[in-house]
UniProtKB/TrEMBL annotation, chain A:
This is Unannotated protein. One of its GO terms (molecular function) is transmembrane transporter activity. One of its GO terms (cellular component) is plasma membrane. Residues 20-250 form the MacB-like periplasmic core domain. It comes from freshwater metagenome. Keywords: Cell membrane, Membrane, Transmembrane, Transmembrane helix. The lineage of its organism: unclassified sequences, metagenomes, ecological metagenomes. It is a multi-pass membrane protein. Belongs to the ABC-4 integral membrane protein family. Residues 290-399 form the ABC3 transporter permease C-terminal domain. The chain crosses the membrane at residues 21-42, 284-311, 331-352, 372-391.
UniProtKB/TrEMBL annotation, chain B:
This is Unannotated protein. CDD domains: ABC_MJ0796_LolCDE_FtsE (cd03255). Keywords: ATP-binding, Nucleotide-binding, Transport. The keyword Transport applies.
Length: 408, 251
């Protein structure tokens, strides 16, 4: 058979163009939707991963008690606070070899910024050091970042996010005009020295609605904060070292803080957050793929249906072929080849449609075509043709020649 | 040339013994054949006659290995057909027997050449050789200029000649024809019968199922069936020698 059989099968397909075309369409839609939906899943996974990584990958966020609220009041007999000296201890390369950078954060809440009559309250107003810029991937788009020297000097400077600048200047103004200007924060005037490169939203928060200033400067603004910090951001040397960095940091803090237990500190591990997110995304992608696979299955049933019709329609031809010496295997091969050819052509069209469809942005997600999904979808399509072709082809092969010849 | 090559072998190419065929089960049983015994010698030209319902089609299906008898034995070229499996029967239909049907039974949308090549393809012959033999067979039947035509572009007579070419292209010992002239006009009929005469003259065993006396007149032996039994068996000419109506024969 081989080439010969392929030609005969192709002849059978061409003989009923519309019918074959519609059957192929079913397979094509199935294959294309598998490719596109898996690509959408992968695309949204990549996007959310990017968002998380924008926060700074391989980082740990350490705070005491409630996350983001700083210290609770003095009603407890022993209030555990992370002090400046602890921050220095965390940078110890011997005690904490997996730690690369450490940035303390003093958060000030509800501090209004006033400039030229306009007023806004940034979502985040944080006092920190130079290291935070590198840990969180903050890029200064124009102007400069403050340095550790500014921290020591209590320099009255600030780096602001684009949203804050726009809130002060109006949407259409050039944010750069703010550089060098004094903006009033609470009861102090800070000179804007840099504008952050926009990061967009992380899903829940506008990451550009932020003001960063030297740690000491922010402490001066809010009275009575002493030498404690709200949070410490620690960057591990690499992603794999995040877990060991977490252990090291906790051990240092536990040994330094009398009466503290491991529950005294709240550690947010960005890497494990990413892992969880990845797992969720995988589930999402598999689900999308499964939905698409069902449509592929439906396409397969269409193939079976049409092959049954074809076999019935060509019963007489099967009889003739058997009368002149076709064996069961010849007839089986002929119809199986036809079914597989049908799904293969449909599959190829589906791959083409899937690849084209994945070039467009779908519900705000830029699809990322996974090569495995292309091979899988095409392979499954061919397997579907084989599986659903076997029954009709076998039916044809089992026909007794005399019955087939008599069929009208 | 190809019409001339027929394999010599066992004397009785067909040997059917007490064959019965019953259709249906339980109360409504139809006895199509009630114990038919028929031996056909190599090189004979047999016409099997009978009214419809006499069992002649059933007999032809059994001879052609398209159907098996309910009871009885069938030896084809000395081989017990009942003992053969599906693929061996396919081989017999492919190489041992050439079929010619009343309704031609060519495969539609397929050229005359491809139709004739088909049995050779199932026999596993190479493309080039297949083509050569199929062309030779078509040429021998005067269809050299029609090889690329599809069945629906050919006249009835031409279609039947293509079917005959297909039947003889594998050089079978037996040519089995079921009402070969039933769907043809008289000119084409005469032509087809002349071809059968010729085939027989070249040594091939020819069995024709018919209800027309003119067709039977060409045979060397006429077997008549009635109600599933043979009731008349007349030899009209010797097995060796030309058939009675062959051109040039002195009556």
């Amino acid at each position: 058979m081989n080439l010969e059989g392929l030609r005969i099968a192709l002849g059978g397909i061409v003989a009923n163009k519309l019918r074959s075309g519609l059957t192929m369409l079913g397979i094509m839609i199935g294959v294309a939707s598998v490719i596109v939906l898996v690509a959408v899943g992968a695309g949204s996974a990549a996007a959310s991963r990017q968002r998380l990584e924008a926060l700074g990958s391989n980082t740990l966020t350490i705070s005491t008690g409630g996350f983001g609220f700083g210290n609770r009041g003095g009603t407890q007999s022993r209030v555990i606070r992370i002090e400046d000296s602890d921050v220095v201890a965390l940078s110890d390369k011997v005690e904490a070899p997996s730690v690369k950078l450490v940035a303390p954060i003093v958060a000030a809440n509800s501090i209004a910024a006033v400039y030229d009559g306009a007023s806004t309250t940034p979502q985040q107003f944080q006092g920190t050091n130079e290291a935070l810029f590198s840990i969180r991937n903050y890029k200064v788009e124009s102007g400069v970042a403050f340095s550790d020297a500014d921290v020591v000097a209590h320099a009255k400077v600030a780096v602001i996010g684009l949203t804050v600048a726009k809130n002060l200047l109006g949407d259409n103004a050039d944010a750069n005009t703010l550089i060098g200007s004094e903006v009033r924060f609470g009861n102090a005037n800070l000179t804007v020295i840099g504008i952050l490169k926009p990061k967009g939203t992380n899903g829940t928060q506008d990451q550009d609605n932020i003001v960063l200033a030297p740690l000491t400067t922010v402490r001066d603004l809010i009275s009575g904060s002493g030498t404690s910090v709200s949070q410490v951001i620690v960057q591990a040397t690499n992603r794999k070292a995040t877990d060991s960095a977490q252990t090291e940091v906790l051990n240092i803090l536990l040994s330094r803080k009398a009466g503290s237990t491991s529950t005294s500190f709240l550690v947010l591990n960005q890497a494990s957050l990413l892992q969880t997110q990845d797992a969720n995304n995988r589930t999402f992608t598999v689900l999308l793929g499964a939905v698409a696979a069902i449509s592929l299955l439906v396409g397969g049933i269409g193939v079976m249906n049409i092959m049954l019709v074809t076999v019935t329609e060509r019963t007489r031809e099967i009889g003739i072929r058997k009368a002149i010496g076709a064996r069961r295997s010849d007839v089986l091969g002929q119809f199986l080849t036809e079914a597989v050819l049908l799904t293969m052509l449909g599959g190829l069209l589906g791959v083409a449609a899937g690849l084209i469809g994945s070039r467009y942005t779908i519900v705000d997600v830029k699809p990322v075509v996974e090569p495995y999904s292309v091979f899988l979808a095409f392979g499954v399509a061919v397997a579907v043709g084989l599986f659903f072709g076997i029954y009709p082809a076998n039916r044809a092969a089992q026909l007794r020649p005399i019955d087939a010849l008599r069929y009208e | 040339m190809m019409l001339a090559e027929a394999p010599p072998l066992a004397r009785n190419v067909i040997d059917i013994r007490a064959a019965t065929k019953v259709y249906g089960m339980g109360d409504i049983q139809v006895h199509a054949l009630r114990g038919v015994s028929l031996a056909v010698e190599r090189g004979d030209y047999v016409a099997i006659m009978g009214a419809s319902g006499s069992g002649k089609s059933t007999l032809m299906n059994i001879i052609g290995c398209l159907d098996a008898p309910t009871e009885g034995e069938y030896y084809l070229d000395g081989a017990d057909v009942n003992a053969l499996g599906d693929s061996e029967l396919a081989d017999i239909r492919n190489r041992g027997i050439g079929f010619v049907f009343q309704s031609f039974n060519l495969i539609p949308r397929t050229s005359a050449l491809a139709n004739v090549e088909l049995p050779l393809m199932y026999a596993g012959m190479k493309k080039a050789q297949r083509r050569e033999r199929a062309l030779a067979a078509l040429e021998a039947l005067g269809l050299a200029d029609r090889v690329d035509h599809h069945p629906n572009e050919l006249s009835g007579g031409q279609q039947q000649r293509v079917a005959i070419a297909r039947a003889i292209v594998t050089s079978p010992a037996i040519v089995l024809a079921d009402e070969p002239t039933g769907a043809l006009d008289s000119v084409s009929s005469t032509e087809v019968l002349r071809i059968f005469d010729q085939l027989n003259q070249f040594g091939r065993t020819v069995i024709v199922i018919t209800h027309e006396q003119e067709v039977a007149d060409h045979a060397k032996r006429v077997v008549r069936l009635h109600d599933g039994s043979i009731y008349d068996d007349v030899r009209r000419a010797a097995v060796i020698g030309p058939p009675p109506m062959a051109p040039g024969r002195v009556a």
